[in-house]
Amino acid sequence: MTLIQTSFNRRSFLKTSALAGGGILISFSWLAGCQPAVNEELLTLPEEWYSLNGFLKIGENGVVTIYCPNPEFGQGVKTSMPMIVAEELDIDWKKVIVEQAPFNTEIYKRQLSGGSQSIRQGWSSLRMAGASARQMLKEAAAQAWGVPVEEITTEEGMLFHKPTEKTAGYGEMASAAANIEVPKEVALKDVKDFKIVGTSRKNVNGKDIVTGKPMFSMDYNKEGMLIAMIVHPPAFGKKFKSFDDAAVKSMPGIKDVFTIKLYNDSYEKSMFDTATFTELVAIVGNSTWEVMNAKKAINVEWEDFDSYKETWGGFGGTRQVDVPSGLESSEDHYKEMESYSNTSAKVARKDGNPEEAFKNAAKIIERTYSAPFLAHNTMEPMNCFAEVTDDHAQLAGPLQAPEFLENTLSARLGMPLDKIDIEMTRMGGGFGRRAYSHYMIEAALISQKAKAPVKLMYTREDDMTYGIYRPTYHAKYRAAFDENNNLTAFHVNAGGIPESPLHANRFPAGAIDNYLAEQWAIDSNITIGAFRAPRSNFIAGAEQSFLDEIAEELGKDPIDFRLELLERAISNPVGERNDYDAARYAGVLELVKEKSGWNKETDANIHRGVSAYFCHNSYAAHVLEVKFTNGKLEIPKVTTAIDCGIVVNPDAAANMAQGAVVDGIGNALFGQLSLKNGKPDQNNFDRYKMIRFSEAPKEIDVHFVKNEIDPTGMGEPPFPPVFGAVANALYKATGKRHLNQPFFPDIEVLG
Amino acid sequence: MAVFNLNINGKNREIDVDPTTPLLWVLRDHLNLVGTKYGCGIAQCGACTVHLDDVAVRSCMMPVSSISNQKVTTIEGLSENGDHPVQKAWLEVDTAQCGYCQTGQIMTAAALLKKNSNPSDEQIEMAMNGNICRCGTYLRIKESVKKAADMMK
Ligand code: FES
Ligand code: FES
What we know:
The complex is a heterodimer.
Chain A: E1 2-5, H1 17-20, E2 37-38, E3 49-53, E4 56-59, E5 64-68, H2 77-89, E6 96-100, H3 118-145, E7 152-155, E8 158-161, E9 166-169, H4 170-177, E10 185-188, H5 206-210, E11 226-231, E12 238-244, H6 246-249, E13 254-261, E14 279-285, H7 288-297, E15 299-304, E16 308-312, E17 319-323, H8 330-343, E18 346-351, H9 354-359, E19 363-371, E20 383-388, E21 393-397, H10 402-413, E22 420-424, H11 438-450, E23 454-457, H12 460-465, E24 472-481, E25 487-497, E26 514-521, H13 536-554, H14 558-571, H15 582-595, E27 607-615, E28 618-629, E29 632-634, E30 638-643, H16 650-669, E31 675-676, E32 679-680, E33 700-704, H17 720-734
Parallel strand pairs in A: 5-6, 11-23, 21-22, 25-26, 30-33
Antiparallel strand pairs in A: 1-10, 2-6, 3-4, 4-5, 7-8, 8-9, 11-14, 12-15, 13-14, 16-17, 18-26, 19-24, 20-21, 20-23, 24-25, 27-28, 28-29, 28-30, 31-32
Chain B: E1 2-8, E2 11-17, H1 23-30, E3 49-52, E4 55-58, E5 71-73, H2 85-93, H3 102-115, H4 121-128, H5 138-152
Parallel strand pairs in B: 1-5
Antiparallel strand pairs in B: 1-2, 3-4, 3-5
């Protein structure tokens, strides 16, 4: 049993009268027909709710509502976060109703989904919320029964006093508990006593999903609501010049056409204010189809913009960013990256004397890897509902991190934060894209100007061509060997447009005496942002492919070779800033080795590749099998091992790991957003090849390392190592090293 | 504008829209049946799948004027209480991640099973290949389809 101080984030434990009735917490009334998520069977709703803290309220009949603080985009937090509260509250999961908490940073900390941090950073406060409520219930029972509180025990929503044989349900004590002081210190359960955490619980919104209930902001509907769409420049490097709406204004259903400017002049941007096209044409009308038709018919003139400087605030103070003019092309990007890698690299880390080692090397191998821009392609395109009046703004949208944008919105509307209400709807995918919710600002400005509630919708073409893409990257690796074929030095030189993917202090840093890591970046006007495991999603694949080549050069088994390096990093690490735990890293390799039957012979047609990586505080390794049947690539099986500490909801975590594997294979083989003269070559799924059913692996077998370490990230870590596993398996099958992603750019797109 | 009488989920619905309006937007904007999703608008992703007389079709490229007296079934009408074997199987396998593609997946799967009550893995892959799942739930979808086939036996 651990005793913890509850002072941390105490505000969320304040009982406010507004919360007590639950009134302001249920703001999802627009979802006609959408009931709160109820587990297993239908529960009878209580007549009265008693709020014990911002995370939960208990009904007189013992039913408990738990609020999920963070937004859901498919990663399963809406189930797993409440599971943690329920665990410490000690309630039967069947008696729990889950609701999405309102966006309110006064009550909840870090209400965002990103960086695989929801569970890791929510762990303590969620446990505390459950445990302190349980303590308050115990106190209430002790007072009611006149017995010492230490003698009260709980089990699945019941309170017991064994000596006097008194029992009560939580519901009976809820009203009294609501008046008890929030305890200053609470006892948490021992991990071994967990009954909910660590057991698989089904998606609390499963039934709503399979019956097509409205849940996404795309489904938002309100009396008098208009549909809005934007028209944005057709190419990066262009901006708005003028428009002629004569042909459009009189089209059926069209209400209004105007331009909006996303930011006031001289606005200092902050971290997630990424938006390239800051002046847009907005078309507002009665229905989607009518607005779509007007969008096709409207005549807009664009012009090239001049290079300019932008001021960005945020972590680390204000900085100036150069946005170059020009219409960029992928072909030129690759040439520029090659040239920058030769001329502009800056040292990020150096151990030993790598220059000397390379000079004295008997043999050097060098490989260059590259990857294109990627579009996030969430299945639900960007969209947002907005109703802005003179004194209030109501927004509802798929928002990974509204707290990053609420100040932007407040500044732009000239409206204080307390007049702005933001609802976080379930997102049809996020993958990093929805941390940059410029579309929320756009929707608000359109509603303000149109003087009506609007739903702004991006078409798929808008979504793909107004991207905040995964950057394009380049990495050159070199390894030196002495005359006895020992590895003597390792050199990575990595960069990209417009950022470097390097993580200088990650493996194999710490395992090689002479180590050099360098990086560079090239300015660009193509907007980029977080994409599932930023930077890692490229560098892992390059590094893990290169390690495979080194192992081959040394005549070693690729897993044994990695384990040898890790052994060195455990017993006698080089340098001090190594930001991985070499023992846990080795752990996933050992687990994947065992579970994949690595040492067993396989069918002669099956070729295997291994890869491992550490990012977002967790460790993942894959063994991936490939096979060619009549020239067609097939992936019979992927075995995955993950160490993310305690796994809160194992089957859901496995689902996400399987998804990451599929996503990784798809992007490694096909994913690419290329540009010509600033214009994306792909604008919909007929040209942007997404992985489909028949290309997915036939089996993905996920294993978790069992330990009692506090949980760490799960959504991102399994993704980056997939690329290397694909490349290494393809090498075994074809004898060819695949260095440039996507590995099969020309594959036919199936519809 | 023109008036159309459609049979949707067993009910007659009269709507007055531009004849070129795709069925998808008639469902979503005019009838508030928003379980059918928009993903691409060009018949590439399957998010908008509905049944036209038991056959899975992409509603995003189907002008409302091209529908005569065929019966339209959307996810809202697939079963009375959300208990179609396909829906039950989807819940048992806990298939969804974000969930956005899943109604389209379910409609495609239900149409497949109507035609072929015992599909092979390959037949499932072929039938489902037009439905993209960005979250990568393909394996669970396959398991769900097989489970549903078993339930229907
Ligand atoms: S929306 Fe119809 S197939 Fe994509
Ligand atoms: S579950 Fe998210 S797109 Fe399929």
